[in-house]
Amino acid sequence: MALLRFTSLRVLRCLLTLWFAVSVTFFVVRLLPGDPALAIASPTMDEAQRQQILADFGLDRPLAVQYVTYLGELLQGNLGVSFRQSVPVSEVLLERLPWTLILTGSALLLTLVIGLPLGVLAATHRGGALDRVIQVGGVVGQSLFVPTVGIALLYTFGLWLGWFPIGGAIDDDVYGLEAYASIARHLVLPCLSLVVLQIGAYVLTLRTNLIDALGEEYCTVARAKGAPERRVVWKHALRNALLPTTTLVGLQLGLLVGGAVLTETIFAYPGVGRAIYESVGQLDFPVLQGAFVLLAAAVVVANLLTDIAYGLLDPRVRAA
Amino acid sequence: MSGLSEELTTAVEPVAGPTPAARTWRAFRRNPLGLVAVGLLALLLVVALAAPLIADYPRGYGEDVLAGPSAAHWFGTDHLGRDIFAQVVWGTRTSMMVGLGASALAIVLGVAVGVGGAYFKRVDGVLGLLVDVMLSLPVLPLMILVAALAGPSVTTLVVVIAVFSWPEVARVVRSQALPIVGLSYVDAAHVMGAPNRWVLLRHVLPAVSPVIAVSVVVTASRAVLSEAGLAFLGLGDPSSWSWGTILYNAQRSGSLSSSWWTAFFPSLAILLLVVAATLVALAYNDARNPRTRQDGAR
Amino acid sequence: MSTSRGFGRRVALGAALVLALAACVPSEPDESSDGASGDASEGGDGGGELSIGTTADVVNFNPLVGNSRTDSWVTNLMYPAMMTIDDEGTKVPALATEWGYGEDGLSAWIELRDDMQWSDGEPLTAEDVVFTIDAIKAEQLGTVSGMIGAYESAVAASDTRIEFTLSRPDGAFLNSIGFWMPIVPEHVFGQAPTVADFANDSDWVSAGPFVLTTVERGQRYVLEAVDGYPLGEDDSGPALDRVVFRVYPDVNTEVLALRSGEIDLIGNALPPSVARDVSGDDELQTFSVPSLGWAHMQYNMRRPPLDQVEVRQALAHAVDYEAIREVVLGGNAVSSNSSVLTPTFAQWVDDTAEEYTYDPDLSRDLLAQAGVENLELEMIYDAGDPNISSWAELVRDQAAEAGITITLAGLERNTYLARTNDRDFDIYAGSWAIIDEPQSNFHLLFAPDGFINYAGVNDPEIDRLMVEASTALTVEDARGPLQELARIVTEQVYDNVMYVEQFTFAASNEWTGFQPKPSELLSVVNPQSLASVRAAD
């Protein structure tokens, strides 16, 4: 019961968050300098035509009216029409969203799969050489500048060794299993640079939390009861250490999505992040807004999942 | 009165003797990584402060375009023949300024919101929602937007990065503070009629300070990286050299793929600064924490 | 206890994500046509596939509306122009074979080839040309609408002959529409209520060497060869099987892709540093083509003290143009001798023109004459333009030598366009991509109501010369007034022409037969060139 109430509250909060995000992005985007008409109407057009185009896109109406119109359309799943490409924004973005989800999803999964054992290893060997190596490795990864990593990876594995393609997400005319293989090949380098970027945060956080947990009374008690150290680490300590780490997943998602903008840009990966980068240069408001809303929604939903997981794991939160 | 908490403290710190600070410092000195990192930070700070003494301000153009590292140009030259060593030296200034400024601003905001949210239940909902909202916005794209909106300058970068960095601090601090606020000794303090300020200063802040220390580092390093990212996308301050500006020039002129030194040295500078700062914080954290301290307490 | 639960949830979350993604993916390859063979590569009987790198997506598939570079590259391969341009900057036949004006200059005619047809089998006739120009006039479409002020009406006298009626003599009319106006199929574009609204984003019909078949935004644009295109080297059609435009984020990645063999040609002009690097690569070939425009600075004469000619001259003499061409452009630029009649157009060029000397002392004297002290100005430019952003810094540093303070404002492209459009600047730095018909284009540049008269030129003598030049129907008649006009522009510093860029393009050695043409727009991706490309032996 408590959990149900907790969950529904979180969902409500999610919706509120989304609404706020939508509003903020809408107004921030409108406040950008530069005549929006220039982005859609050719400079050689005469005034009447420009006005016509502005009217077509609703840009001549007051901001408040534009805002209400936008919210209304959004509820119906209509994200507007791209100024530049004259096609629905949802069409532009939805054909790109899967690529971003694949990229960030696989990067997240790989980070967790590699990061968890590394964190445990570092914590159980604290102070040792292995701990140092893992710590420094994690820190270095976090500190690298994404585009530099991207170019270095491209240069090494794309050009010199020729193992992976330079850009894109899939080869032409591949089907079935071949398509999966092609997608995987194109995914390796961008995914790798995202993993390098964020794995440090997971490893270091887990390490710290695990070391804390290992010093807790219940671990001492478990040891006193004769439980083998392996069991103490993986069963008792890790459970508690994972709690704050769960928070990190939601926290890192925003960063991951941000990193995706740079990564997708460098690796010519056709995702939403690159659409954002391109749209900023073109002042394509509808695409920008749509991309923000979409990414914000993805992060909010992921945060919701972490919150619920947190609630399930932590009896204190569950009871609250 | 505070007997309960005294007990708890002594329970985990059985070694009596020197003050905690002295013990922390003693443990810190034993960590070679931490010491090396401190040295690096100091070196970078000196470079930032003494930039005019080390190299001439890079301007104009040079004869040797895109020359590799040599005795005359330690880090090579860029597409206009300007010395990259000089650019990196002067870039240290801007990048450190942005990093420290943004971090300070973000920490103040983040700790206030984080601790406030955990402690004052009435505002927790609102603050939590605000943090959620900020975190749900894709940060880098929003930074791009706002930086473009406000016009490129160092001040803009500092404010933009800080405005979008504090929620992370707030969230971590809050999650750390929440269990502490619920602990029995804090409740006991309340029952004893201790004022909020006293409880916050005496119990909550000290308890979250390791998290704050880590946050300072993480935020400062993110700020330097964000600055580089924004500059790389063309949103840096064009009138001052930063590491990001050097990288942006390399990317825009197309020398990134042909002349490795144009990107390598500024990237290395970023890496060194961020790694050093992070290691210092980690070492400090470890030294502070009796459980991870390697002073034979266990 | 619940450790496994925590893990389980974590794994479930990841698995769900991956499942969701996997569900998205298989639909992708299904989109392409079933007929395409799995490995259509070079060799064998096929002519192979030419991959071209670009840094932008196609924004608009309607050639009458779209105007970005990638738009033009793709649509130029499908919608033929009546004329093209040769190395001298002269208009030469393409779809058209002959053209001319009536005695009084109030009529004109164009004769078309009779062997062109649309890819759906319909013949390309004079009716399509009439439809295109009428649609442009009626709906004021794109840049061409600004060039046809003299146009009244047109009729298709036969399948291959169009006759135009003009309201006034305009010696640039035929060349302008011949070069700039892509001919679109009436039986396709005429279906839409208005041509401007016709998105043209599927079922393409082409009369060029290639036709678009597959579009994957952010990734690639595939164009299949069309049989029978007569303008290539082999008049039975292109040797290639297909052309694929691939989208890359920037030139750095493009170069890596070219070197790794992922693409065969970079569509964009290479920045000087890359051009230098690439020219030493044995596996690549490079092409050098001149710009059809120029790079320049303009001084806003609406703002004192820039209304004084001495101040403008002081600014013009405070720049080391040779250094800019050598260092920033890496020598890939020629001097225009500060004249708006650039060396690219041999027929107009004035041999007596001389470049402003770099002389900071002269600048100081000129400023003193004008009684101006502590001159502080702001210079705006498109921060995305690598060359201009670089030389802007040089201009600033050199002006400082002459005691002039220039603040740089490198702007995001749209902001920059907005500010130039509002004439909100002290100094404007930029470049014209193509100024191919001085007779008509100069009106846009220097008439008081000229659309791109950023500096605010308002000079009756210039206006008189422009009328004289535009009504002249032959090159010989127009040359005199144009050269006189150019001299005044230089003298008064109405437009400070700094250089004419020589663009460098790079392609893999595995291909041969490219036909480079001037400008970044035509370069080696123009239809005649791609229709002639074949695998090297």
Automatic annotation (TrEMBL), chain A:
Q: Which InterPro entries match?
A: BPD_transp_1_N (IPR045621), MetI-like (IPR000515), MetI-like_sf (IPR035906)
What compartments host this protein? Cell membrane
Q: Name one GO biological process term.
A: transmembrane transport
**What residues form the membrane-spanning segments?**
12-32, 99-123, 144-163, 183-204, 241-267, 287-313
Q: What is its main location?
A: membrane
The record's listing under Pfam families reads: BPD_transp_1 (PF00528), BPD_transp_1_N (PF19300)
- What is one GO cellular-component annotation here? plasma membrane
Q: Which UniProt keywords apply?
A: Cell membrane, Membrane, Transmembrane, Transmembrane helix, Transport
Gene3D superfamilies in the cross-refs? MetI-like
List residues of the ABC transmembrane type-1 domain: 97-306
Q: Which domain of life is it from?
A: Bacteria
Keyword Methyltransferase in record: no
Q: How does it sit in the membrane?
A: Multi-pass membrane protein
Family to which this protein belongs: Belongs to the binding-protein-dependent transport system permease family.
**Protein name from the UniProt record:** ABC transporter permease
Please name the source species. Answer: Jiangella anatolica
Automatic annotation (TrEMBL), chain B:
Q: Name one GO biological process term.
A: transmembrane transport
Q: Where in the cell is it found?
A: Cell membrane
Q: Does the keyword Lipid biosynthesis apply?
A: no
Task: Give membrane topology per the record.
Answer: Multi-pass membrane protein
Q: Name one GO cellular component term.
A: plasma membrane
Query: Where does this chain mainly localize?
Result: membrane
Task: List residues of the ABC transmembrane type-1 domain.
Answer: 92-281
Q: Which residues cross the membrane?
A: 33-55, 97-120, 204-225, 263-284
Q: Give the top-rank taxon of the lineage listed in the UniProt record for this protein.
A: Bacteria
| Keywords associated with the record | Cell membrane, Membrane, Transmembrane, Transmembrane helix, Transport
The protein's matches in SUPFAM superfamilies, at most eight in alphabetical order, are given as: MetI-like
InterPro entries noted in UniProt:
BP-dependent_transpt_permease, MetI-like, MetI-like_sf, OppC_N
Family assignment?
A: Belongs to the binding-protein-dependent transport system permease family.
Kindly give the PANTHER family that the UniProt entry links to this protein. Answer: D,D-DIPEPTIDE TRANSPORT SYSTEM PERMEASE PROTEIN DDPC-RELATED (PTHR43386:SF1), OLIGOPEPTIDE TRANSPORT SYSTEM PERMEASE PROTEIN APPC (PTHR43386)
- Spell out the protein name for this chain: ABC transporter permease
Automatic annotation (TrEMBL), chain C:
Give the residue ranges for region: Disordered. Answer: 28-52
Locate the compositionally biased regions of type Gly residues.
Answer: 41-50
GO cellular component terms listed in the entry, alphabetical order: ATP-binding cassette (ABC) transporter complex; periplasmic space
Picking any one GO biological process from the record gives: peptide transport
Task: State whether keyword Transmembrane helix applies.
Answer: no
What keywords does the record list, in alphabetical order?
Signal, Transport
Extract the signal peptide range: 1-22
Question: Where does the Solute-binding protein family domain lie?
Answer: 92-447
One of its Pfam families is SBP_bac_5
Record-level Gene Ontology MF annotations: peptide transmembrane transporter activity
InterPro entries documented for this protein: Peptide/Ni-bd, SBP_5, SBP_5_dom
Instruction: Give the family this protein belongs to, as stated in its UniProt record.
Output: Belongs to the bacterial solute-binding protein 5 family.
Q: What is this protein called?
A: ABC transporter substrate-binding protein
What organism does the UniProt record list as the source? Jiangella anatolica
Q: What is the lineage of its organism?
A: Bacteria, Bacillati, Actinomycetota, Actinomycetes, Jiangellales
